[in-house]
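Hey team,

Filing this mostly as a record. A colleague (T.K.) asked me to run one chain through the structure pipeline before their review meeting, and I want the input and output archived in the tracker in case anyone asks later how it was produced. No errors, nothing strange. Just documentation.

Input sequence:
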Amino acid sequence: MEDGLNGDPHLSRGFTHINERGQANMVNVLGKDHTRRVAVARCVVRSSMDLDLVLDTRIDGLDILESARVAGVQAAKQTSTLIPLCHPILLDAIHVEITARQHHCEITATAEITERTGVEMEALTACAISGLSLVNALASWDPDAFVDDLTLWHKSGGRSGTWQRGGDPTNPGAITNVDADADD
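Output structure:
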């Protein structure tokens, strides 16, 4: 297979989910230690409506923000059935926070586990499904509503140590590896 990585040192190990024959492959985590792992993801739902006003009310008795939050929690627990080659894990905790602003909602998901594999996909899945749940709830009023900036902001634990995206969550910036010398 031709090296298309252009000498990028971050990609020198190759792709972890592709084996030596070029086939999709679940990463073998048997040699890894059980460590405390945390991941934080964020996304934004954007709308032309005043979401602070609309989402603060109940529609037919339904609290839209709470429904979207619970959808994210449930989705995080199902990540391995949604994303191929993702390890099935038992989360220690998943927290989803949704804050309504005038023309957007900020969604933050924090996943925690003590395990041999990380929880980045679980945090990202929680954000994505919470956001999609909000877009679905807004569809009849604002068909232009959309999910934006789905991004991993922090991960810690495991051999790679702590990694954190630099900048403001509302304006994604440069990537910072806090433990630059750590090996995954």
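Quick notes for T.K.: Residues 172-184 have pLDDT under 50 and may be disordered. DSSP finds four helices and eight strands in the chain.
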